[in-house]
Amino acid sequence: MQKVSVVHSDPDILGGTPVFIGTRVPFKTLMDYLDAGDSIEEFLEDFPSVSRDVAIQAIKESGKFIYQ
Predict the structure, then answer these.
(1) What CATH code would you report for 7-62?
(2) Which of 6, 35, 45, 49 could pair covalently with 23 via S-S, beta carbons 3.0-4.6 A apart?
(3) pTM of the prediction?
């Protein structure tokens, strides 16, 4: 069984910017938070339409290593 990605790109949503499925929250926003030293919890507080599980899965899909 193939796992479905939690991030997708659609030309009709933010001009094709990769976003979390079911939202208009760009995946890059989460990466920007993490690169700035913010926690996943800070991101989730600012973007409640993204669940913790989805954020973690997106990070795993991206291949970016983080401490949880």
Answers:
(1) 1.10.10.10
(2) 49
(3) 0.84
- Half-sphere exposure in the Cβ direction for 22 (13 Å, CA): 9
What does the domain layout of the chain look like in residue ranges? 7-62
Q: Tokens for 49?
A: 């339409």
Which two structure tokens, joined as six digits, stand for 64?
């970016």
Query: What are 2-60's pLDDT values in tens digits?
Result: 567 899 999 999 999 999 999 999 999 999 999 999 999 999 999 999 999 999 999 99
Q: Which of 23, 13, 17 is nearest to 48 (CA)?
A: 23
Sign for the CA dihedral angle at 54, 59, 61, 67 comes to negative
